[in-house]
Design a protein that fits this description.
The complex is a heterodimer of chains A (389) and B (363). By secondary structure, chain A is α/β, with parallel strands linked by helices. Chain A is 32% helix and 32% strand. Chain A is globular. The two termini of chain B are 36 Å apart. Classes of the chains: A alpha/beta (389), B mainly alpha (363). At the A-B interface, α1, α7 and α10 of A face α4, α5 and α12 of B.
């Protein structure tokens, strides 16, 4: 009987130990880090800024009358991210919870200086979020975190929602931390990271815009792509399957298209030792608006629009790839991966010199756009643009 | 000694759970970095190695019915059999200590960094020791529940990770030929081979004739699921990134989300802890019963206490935190020693038994 009681006591004590209370952290001592900002300060030292969520009390507990800031920004410098975070812990007097971090902002200055010395922290640290979205800020990251004006109280929540679509895939060229870390070490598929930049300022706050892509060569940022170029890189890297573009059909005649179901097929081929990359882009184009009357019932008109659209995309893709390869020597669309998969033996010899090989690639671009009926008008005919009303 | 009997279904789940959790212990860290996307071939070869060992044990088990590996080794090999039995038992004990050490290390480094590792080993040793003391039927019944849980949670994890998978990352296949993946087979082969404990379980089978069929099905299902987990990790992160983590399957579950649920790594934790419990319990049972049979004790309970007091200290043994020695041990010493015991010694016993049988038949 005594032994049975002893067994019960042992079993009960085991349940308590298994519950995991040993590593518990009291909730009131925990602060969620919603965003991490990384900068280089004036002394070329790493500056880490953390956006800490400052939760308000529920209304029933008197939260309605509270005048608390939704977030607080803490900043510290150090040789490593870890060192700076340890200083911030002393400032905030809280345990920092990184597992819900929405965004990691890296300043352009730091990105251009190279990230290989600092990203080790993200590889090692178990208490972090591999799904954080990475952004490059062309102002200081601290400024972007503290002064950005968004509809949501916590700006990084807004950025995360913008970059992530409902299907859980990346949208608008967003790149998550695990993808970013992997591409910093890869020459066959380098990182292209959405930029966040001030659009307009209102008193102390700044309206931020996410759009342009920062392309990387290894662990260093090479430069920026324009909005149009960024969109094309997002399509080619399969980060985005939709897009809105405006095409000039004739003088002063513009049509806005909504491109959907974008499918990209990339193939590599060696012809007389010359690497030829063939790109086939297929998509549906919905006319959103036009500055001139269009008779889409006419096959000729439809054909002309499709031809113009195909030409526009074809030229755009070639231009973007030449800029990415020639100017930035960056393989932000993953052509290296395609060559590696198709010609694993040849890849071994060209991998080391892939940056230079990019410039010599011959591009064969083919686009196949299909105009599809959209909008409220009958007979696919658009008589007048709403602009003229 | 209590003669518990287990059904084919229970035996199936013991082996399935053991294969799944044994793969978690060291195979991902060794295989993903070295063999990359060709690891499926290593897993297939590892499975074949295990099926080969299982076939030998099946033949021996049927030939020497109602006897365990330890008992018929004594009968077949004579005095040498005692030496071989001691090697088997030390190997079982070493496998428990290694598994326990990896179990505590993983929990401490990934989930509960502030909890002393010894706490994990104390709780696991008490639970596994309790199960081992109760006998194989208790472990078998638990494995039925845990096996189904592992299957269900694996399905959820596969479904969750699907949006993150890029099939292209699994190519090119056999970039450096077949040699790396063939050599890599020693990792899954050596860990799967721990299922040599089948020799200790076969006397408890209600229908021993079906043991091989059940065992092969369980090994195939277990290794298939674990191969899928490893391939998912590579198809999500790429082989370069996946190869740098201690456990890429854990990182895969950190990246994936299940509908609106984040942090689904708790499901992996469920598989890992429950699977480790069944594996360590079965090994614990095998080593204690085997030792009792070797020393002709009436009960194995005393050995549960003796071995339990050693196993508890697995995470604090000297050198367990020395990266260089741990890496050497897991990538060289353990696989080669384990394979030579699982495959080598079992083949030796089988050959001697075969010769003895044929000589007996002739005379």
């Amino acid at each position: 009987m005594v032994i049975r009681y002893l067994k019960c006591i042992v079993a009960a004590s085991m349940i308590m130990m298994i519950s995991g209370c040993w590593s518990q952290i009291n909730f009131d001592q925990l602060t969620v880090v919603s965003a991490i900002g990384l900068d280089l300060d004036e002394d070329q030292k790493l500056q880490v800024s953390l956006q800490l969520v400052n939760p308000t009390l529920p209304v029933a507990a008197g939260g309605a009358t509270q005048q608390r800031r939704a977030v607080a920004i803490y900043t510290a410098t150090g040789h490593t991210i870890h060192e700076a975070i340890e200083i911030i812990k002393k400032q905030s007097k809280k345990n920092l919870f990184f597992s819900q971090t929405r965004a990691i902002l890296i300043s352009e200055k730091l990105a251009k200086n190279g990230l290989s010395n600092i990203v080790d922290y993200f590889w090692r640290e178990p208490n972090q979020n591999f799904n954080s979205w990475v952004l490059i800020s062309n102002s200081t990251a601290k400024d972007a975190l503290s002064r950005s004006k968004e509809l949501l109280a916590v700006s990084s929540d807004e950025w995360k929602a913008y970059l992530k679509d409902k299907t859980n895939n990346t949208a608008r060229g967003g790149i998550e931390l695990y993808q970013f870390l992997s591409r910093l070490n890869q020459s066959s598929y380098e990182a292209a990271v959405p930029g966040i930049s001030p659009f307009a300022s209102e008193s102390k706050q700044i309206i931020m815009e996410i759009g342009k892509l920062a392309v990387f060569n290894g662990d260093k940022m090479s430069g920026w792509l324009s909005l149009d170029e960024s969109r094309i890189v997002n399509w080619l890297s399969r980060s985005s399957k939709t897009g809105v573009i405006q095409v000039k059909i004739k003088n002063d005649e513009f049509i806005d298209f909504d491109l959907t179901n974008i499918h990209i097929k990339t193939t590599a081929q060696f012809k007389n030792n010359q690497l030829v990359m063939s790109i086939l882009m297929k998509c549906d184009a919905h006319i959103k608006t036009s500055t001139e009357a269009l008779d889409l019932a006419s096959q000729q008109v439809s054909h002309t629009i499709e031809t113009k659209l195909n030409q526009y995309l074809n030229t755009g893709i070639k231009h973007t790839l030449h800029k990415t390869f020639d100017t930035y020597q960056s393989d932000a669309v993953g052509f290296g991966d395609v060559v590696h998969r198709t010609y694993p033996e040849k890849w071994k010899s060209i991998e080391a010199n892939w940056g230079a090989t990019l410039k010599t690639i011959e591009l064969a671009v083919d686009t196949d756009v299909r105009l599809v009926k959209s909008g409220l008008l009958i007979n696919r005919s658009i008589k007048k643009d709403d602009k003229d009303d | 000694m209590i003669k518990n009997k287990i059904s084919n279904g229970q035996f199936f789940f013991i082996i399935f759970v053991a294969i799944a959790s044994l793969t978690f212990f060291s195979v991902p860290s060794q295989l993903v970095g070295k063999v990359k996307q060709d690891l499926w071939f290593s897993m297939v070869l590892g499975t074949l190695i295990d099926v080969y060992v299982a076939s030998l044990l099946y033949w021996l088990g049927l030939k020497y019915r109602e006897q365990s590996l330890i008992q018929y080794t004594n009968e077949i090999m004579g005095f040498l059999g005692r030496v071989i039995n001691v090697i088997y038992l030390i190997f079982f004990l070493g496998a428990i200590i290694t598994s326990m050490w990896i179990f505590c290390d993983f929990l401490s480094r990934s989930f509960m960094p502030e909890t002393p590792r010894i706490v994990f080993s104390i709780t696991m040793t008490i639970c596994a020791g309790f199960a081992a003391g109760k006998g194989i039927e208790t472990i078998a019944r638990l494995s039925q529940i845990i096996g189904v849980l592992i299957l269900l949670t694996s399905l959820i994890l596969f479904a969750s990770a699907l949006p993150y998978v890029h099939i292209g990352l699994l190519f090119p296949q056999f970039e450096n030929g077949f040699l790396p993946s063939t050599l890599g087979a020693i990792y899954p082969g050596s860990w799967f081979g721990i299922c040599v404990i089948m020799g200790m379980l076969m006397p408890h089978m209600k229908a021993p004739k079906k043991t091989l069929k059940v065992k092969v099905s369980a090994v195939i299902l277990g290794s298939f699921i674990m191969t899928l987990f490893l391939l998912y990790s590579i198809a999500t992160m790429g082989s370069n990134m996946a190869g740098q983590f201690e456990n890429p399957i854990y990182i895969l579950t950190r990246i994936s989300h299940f509908i609106i649920f984040e942090r689904i790594e708790v499901l992996l934790l469920l598989i890992f802890i429950s699977g480790s419990f069944i594996t360590i319990s079965t090994l614990f049972y095998s080593v204690t019963v085997g030792t009792a049979q070797l020393f002709k004790n009436r009960t194995h309970t005393i050995w549960v206490y003796i071995f339990g007091s050693i196993i508890i200290f697995s995470p604090v043994f000297p050198y367990s935190q020395n990266s260089y020695i741990v890496e050497e041990y897991l990538s060289h010493w353990f696989p080669y020693v384990a394979l030579s015991i699982e495959g080598g010694l079992t083949t030796l016993i089988f050959l001697v038994a075969l010769i003895k049988t044929s000589v007996k038949n002739k005379s």
